[in-house]
Design a protein that fits this description.
By secondary structure, the chain is of the alpha/beta class. It has a five-stranded mixed β-sheet with strand order 3-2-1-4-6. Helix 4 crosses helix 8, helix 5 crosses helix 9 and helix 12 packs across helix 13.
C-alpha cells in the first residue's frame, strides 16, 4: 500500500512482506471526524515520526470522508506524518463499510493486517488521543513482546461475548473458566502482531469456508477477543506481556464532572500518554464537565482555551446530524439486502 489514498484490492490480493516497524491504524465514522482531527494533532505534537512506519485511517463513513475531511486530518498531522498516511475504505477490505457500523469497524481493524508491512500494529479508535510523549517502546518491549495487560471477565458485561468467542475457537468449559480469570482487554490502544493477525484471518476463512468479514458477522465475534483467543488457543500463546498501556477514558455512563475528573486524575497519576473522550460523553457533557475536559486539553497543549471551546461547540452542532446520516445509511443497507 503506497501513497496517501491507497485502498488496495480484494482480500485475495497478494500481501506485502512483513518488515520491522510500527503501524498505527485508526477507524472513524461520521460523528467522530472531529475527534480524528484532534487525534491527528496530538500525533504531530507527541509522536516521534521515526517511530511511525505507516499510519492508516480506516474510513467507515457511509459516504466516505471526502477530500476536505482527509485534507483536514493531513494538515493536523504535519508534513512528515502525512507523507506516511493512507486512507482506506472499510468496504475495500471485504466488509460492508459504513453500513453495519460497529461490526464492520471491528472486522476491518483485523483485515487491514493483510495490507500492512509493519511487524506490529497499534489499533486505535478516533476517540484516542495523545496527551504526552509516546514512542515505539510504549507498545513493544525490548524482547519483542507486545505490551498489554489482562484482567478478569468473571463479572464483566462482555463475559458472554468472550465465552461465545472462545467456544467458537474450540475451547471447552474448563479452558474458558481459566481464561475468564485473566484475559486481554478490548480497549484501545491495542497492539497486534501482523503475522499473527494474518494467520488468524486465514484460519477463520479456511475453517469456515467463508470470507472473514462474512464469518465475523455471522458468528457475532468481537475483534480483540477473537485475536487474543486465537493466539492463546491456536497460535503462539498469550499475545500480551502484562504491562498495561494506560489510556483513561471519559465514558458516556460517567459523562459528568466527577467522571471526567476521575479520568483526568487517573491520567495524571499514572503518567498516561493516552486519553480518550467518548463521542457520546462529549455530546452529553454539561458545562462543568466540559470545563474539566477543556482545561485538561489546554493544560496538555492540544488547544488554546478558545480553540477548545469552539471545538466542543462545533462537535455538538454537527453530532446529531452526523449520527442521523450514519443510521440512515445503515437502514438503507438493510433494506437493500432483504
Amino acid at each position: 500500500m503506497t501513497g496517501r489514498h491507497a485502498g488496495g484490492g480484494p482480500d485475495g490480493a497478494s500481501m506485502p512482506a512483513v518488515e520491522p516497524g510500527l503501524a498505527f491504524v485508526t477507524v472513524v465514522f461520521e460523528p467522530e471526524l472531529p475527534l480524528l482531527r484532534l487525534q491527528a494533532r496530538s500525533f504531530r505534537q507527541h509522536l516521534a515520526p521515526d517511530d511511525v512506519a505507516e499510519l492508516v485511517v480506516l474510513d467507515n463513513c457511509a459516504g466516505g470522508m471526502g477530500r476536505s475531511a482527509q485534507r483536514a486530518v493531513l494538515d493536523e498531522l504535519g508534513e512528515e506524518l502525512a507523507a506516511r498516511t493512507a486512507f482506506v475504505r472499510t468496504s475495500a477490505l471485504g466488509v460492508d463499510g459504513g453500513t453495519k457500523g460497529w461490526r464492520s469497524q471491528q472486522a476491518a481493524k483485523l483485515l487491514v493486517a493483510r495490507r500492512l508491512r509493519s511487524e506490529h500494529i497499534v489499533i486505535l479508535d478516533a476517540k484516542n488521543h495523545l496527551i504526552g510523549a509516546a514512542s515505539a517502546a510504549d507498545f513493544v518491549g525490548p524482547d519483542g513482546r507486545v505490551h498489554g495487560a489482562t484482567h478478569p471477565y468473571t463479572e464483566h458485561p462482555l463475559r458472554a461475548d468472550l465465552e461465545r468467542t472462545l467456544r467458537y475457537l474450540g475451547a471447552d468449559d474448563a479452558r474458558i473458566a481459566s481464561l475468564l480469570e485473566a484475559f486481554p482487554p478490548t480497549t484501545t490502544p491495542f497492539v497486534i502482531r501482523t503475522q499473527d493477525a494474518r494467520r488468524m484471518l486465514d484460519d477463520v476463512e479456511l475453517t469456515s469456508g467463508r470470507p472473514f468479514g462474512e464469518e465475523f458477522e455471522r458468528a457475532g465475534l468481537l475483534e480483540f477477543f477473537l485475536y487474543s483467543g486465537w493466539c492463546i488457543l491456536r497460535g503462539s500463546g498469550m499475545p500480551v506481556d502484562g504491562e498495561p498501556i494506560r489510556a483513561p477514558l471519559v465514558w458516556p455512563r460517567k459523562a459528568d464532572e466527577r467522571g471526567a475528573a476521575e479520568a483526568i486524575r487517573d491520567a495524571s497519576d499514572s503518567g498516561a500518554a493516552w486519553f480518550a473522550v467518548h463521542r457520546r460523553a462529549l455530546a452529553r457533557a454539561d458545562g462543568a464537565t466540559t470545563d474539566r475536559i477543556v482545561a485538561f486539553w489546554v493544560e496538555r497543549g492540544l488547544m488554546t482555551a478558545p480553540e477548545a471551546r469552539r471545538f466542543v461547540r462545533r462537535f455538538r452542532l454537527g453530532y446529531i446530524p452526523a449520527v442521523g446520516r450514519a443510521r440512515a445509511a445503515e437502514r438503507l443497507s438493510r433494506l437493500r439486502s432483504r
